[in-house]
Amino acid sequence: MPDAEAHPEEIRRSGASLRAAGVSRSFEGVQALRGVTLELHRHEVVGLIGPNGAGKSTLVNVLTGFDFPDAGSVELEGRDVTRWRPDRRGRNGLARTFQHSRSFRGLSVRENVEVAALGAGASPRKARRQADELLESLYLGSYADAPAGSLPHGDERRLGVARALATFPRFVLMDEPAAGLPESEVPAFAEVVRSVRDEHDAGVLLIDHNMALIMEVCDRIQVLDQGTTLAEGTPNEVRANIDVVAAYLGESAVPVEPTG
Ligand SMILES: Nc1ncnc2c1ncn2[C@@H]1O[C@H](COP(=O)(O)OP(=O)(O)OP(=O)(O)O)[C@@H](O)[C@H]1O
Ligand SMILES: [Mg+2]
To answer: Dihedral of the CA atoms 93, 19, 44, 10 (nearest 10)?
Structure first.
C-alpha cells in the first residue's frame, strides 16, 4: 500500500481524509452544531476540545453515522458518506470509541476484541490471532481470559481502543477515552494514542477535557464552543489564543482536571 509509506503532505493531497463540511445539527431548539468544518488526515492526532455542550459528541456522532446532520456533509476519503449507516462507515475504515463503555461485560476481554474483528470480516482464526496481538500491544494480554466487566477502569478504556483497532480503521474517533483515568495512567494512555497514529497508521480524533493530555499528544487542535469553531491550530497556537482562554473562563469552563 503506497498510503502507508506516503509522506503526510502527499496523503493530504491524495484526499485520504475524513471531513465534515459545514455541518449543522439542532435538537428541539438547541443548535448543537452551526456549520462546523473539521478535517482529519491519516497519521495525525487532532484534538477536539471545548466546554460541556459545545457539540463535540454530536460532531463525532455525525462523523460516524450515529446521527445525521440537518445541513452539511461528511466525506470519507473523497466519498460522500453523509447518509451512510455506522456499520457501512466501519467497513470503510472508520472506528470510534464511546464516552461510556460498550464492552460486553460477560464476555472475556479476548472475546470482546474477537467479536469486533469478526464483525469487520475476519475469519475466526484470524480474529483470535488479531485479538491476542492487539491485547498484547495494549498491555491487556494478562487479562485476556478475564470477563471484560472485571477490568479496572483504565484497562477498560484500552479495551475500547483494542475493539476499535480490530477493524483495521484508517480513522479512529475517541470520545473522552481518558475520562476518569487516574493521573498516573494518563502518560501510558498518551502512548496508546500515539501508537494508533504511528503503528496502526490511522488518523485519531481525540476528545478530552484533560488539557495536559491534549497538549501533549495532538498535532493540531480544534476548539468548539456553542456549536462553532472558536480556534484551531497547533497546541502552541491554540494555547496562545486569547479567545480560548475567554471561553474557558466562561460559566461552563473546561476543567483541566475533574474537580468532582
Ligand atoms: N439527542 C439529543 N437530544 C437533545 N439535545 C441534545 C442531544 N444530543 C446533544 N444535545 C444537546 O446538544 C448540545 C451539544 O451536546 P454534545 O453532547 O455534543 O456536547 P459535548 O461537547 O460533547 O459536551 P460534553 O463535553 O459534556 O460531552 C448540548 O446542548 C446537548 O444538550
Ligand atoms: Mg460529549
So the answer is: 90
Domain extent listing, the chain: 2-248
Determine whether the shortest distance from the Cβ of 53 to ligand 1 is under 6 A.
yes
CATH number for the domain running over 2-248: 3.40.50.300
Q: What is the mean pLDDT of residues 141-145?
A: 96
Using most ligand atoms within 8 A of CB, pick from 56, 98, 206, 230 the residue to mutate for ligand 1: 56
CA of 167 to the centre of ligand 1 (A): 27
Q: What is the pLDDT of residues 25-45, one digit of tens each?
A: 999 989 999 999 999 999 999
> Has residue 5 got a pLDDT over 90?
no
- 200: which 3 cell numbers? 496502526
* Short-list 78, 80, 132, CA closest to 109: 132
The mean pLDDT of 217-229, rounded to a whole number, is 96
**Alpha helices in the chain, H assignment, sequence order:** 2-5, 8-14, 56-64, 86-91, 109-119, 124-137, 153-165, 186-198, 211-217, 235-240, 242-248
